[in-house]
Recover the amino acids of this structure.
């Protein structure tokens, strides 16, 4: 595996046994040499983790199609950190995370293990992409995988500025029903979380964060609008969270030590 | 505790027993009614978590000064979600997270339990602030706590736009040695993580993500520059991670389904 092809790291947050990972690996293998290093279990909504208080295992495993992969006890972002720090010996040209079962739109991005794995790569100035499919059901990952590989190929050719990742969301439609591809901005999610209080067999209360799936505001030009209207959404994401338009207002507050 | 004062929720990521939490609670109690709901253990570098795959406990505990507080098995962002979803009955006007032992500068913000707790509030359009002290040692939290309370008071008075949080970093200096307060943008962190491979008593390898503390690029006007030069840094943070300046470039790629 030391060809002249680029080298792609594939990871995810649904865990090493997820069918979305396999579909993504297969599609990427058409255009690159691929190493898979993914979490041993599901890390949905786990956020951007750097595991420093406990050690991490890395094990060789065999995927459902008989190919070799690496699995780790760490989070998705840990998997990327481990790979870039040397667990994977060959230099990595591109990191692709997914294909997540469930969209990662709007404010989902800071919660999402899929997206924060790609953030981890972007922080190390390795170009990266997160890919999610807008369904929670049994899914056909093939159209999303095919698009992801073609976008990876283009991105490797054209390059991305340092610190940028692409957040890709694909509607769950047959390939020929997908209307096209929109470059989008992040939309506004509407979370509908509800507190569910239960009582355990010993009479003590405990809580679930429950409630229906989030919706979102379908402003034209946003990721939420694109997927809701049958388009693949590609959002360029950076890690400068500064609210630049507030800097002046806050400076006018004339803050000082009390 | 149903006075005319505003109601502040205090949380953190170092855990309910951390002295930085107590200092922050005391300072906020000078200007508001305070409820403490914080994780039962340390969640450093845990990221933006929404715990949905397991239930969460909330317990009444007594802090070192004899006051009552709530502790949860969830992450810092879960603590905020639980409080806003109704575990805390009274409406919350402001969320303050900290005082973290260790700065949260530049790219630290997406990893940080302290900052992602404040993000959780901002996503629900509750104004919020994360406060961190730039030391890993035994620390005097008093100057940072005093500044945090005064900034909370001003923010409650003036208001913040929806979806905004303030990321506050305080240099570890005596109050009279602090040079002033700078409104800053996020700087660039330089992580120096190293992979440490060890072998367990049964001959199997495991890995630590180790290495020295991160440094950063001391560009004037950034959070990293301010703290390094003896100023308190206040960075307005929003959750629109769109790289707006790349939208046009990517649109020119003319992406489509392959």
């Amino acid at each position: 595996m030391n060809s002249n092809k680029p080298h792609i790291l594939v990871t995810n947050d649904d865990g090493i046994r997820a069918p979305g990972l396999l579909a993504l690996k297969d599609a990427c293998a058409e255009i690159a040499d691929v190493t898979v290093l993914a979490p041993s279990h599901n890390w949905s909504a786990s956020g951007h983790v750097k595991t420093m208080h406990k050690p991490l295992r890395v094990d060789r495993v065999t995927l459902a199609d008989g190919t070799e992969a690496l699995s780790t006890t760490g989070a998705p972002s840990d998997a990327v950190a481990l790979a870039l720090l040397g667990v994977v010996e060959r230099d990595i040209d591109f990191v692709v995370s997914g294909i997540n079962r469930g969209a990662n739109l709007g404010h989902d991005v800071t919660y999402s293990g899929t997206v924060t794995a790609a953030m981890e790569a972007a922080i190390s100035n390795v170009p990266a992409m997160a890919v999610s499919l807008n369904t929670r059901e049994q899914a056909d990952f093939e159209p999303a995988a095919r698009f992801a590989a073609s976008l990876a190929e283009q991105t490797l050719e054209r390059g991305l500025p340092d610190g940028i990742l692409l957040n890709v969301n694909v509607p769950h439609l047959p390939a020929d029903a997908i209307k096209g591809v929109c470059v989008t901005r992040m939309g506004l999610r509407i979370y509908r979380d509800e507190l569910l209080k239960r009582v355990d067999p010993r009479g003590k209360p405990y809580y679930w964060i429950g409630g229906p799936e989030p919706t979102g505001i379908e402003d034209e030009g946003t990721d939420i609008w694109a997927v809701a209207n049958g388009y693949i959404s590609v959002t360029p994401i950076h890690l400068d969270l500064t609210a630049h338009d507030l800097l002046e207002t806050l400076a006018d507050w004339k803050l000082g030590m009390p």
DSSP finds seven helices and 13 strands in chain B. The radius of gyration of chain B is 19 Å. The mean pLDDT of chain B is 95. The first strand of chain B starts at residue 7 and ends at 11.
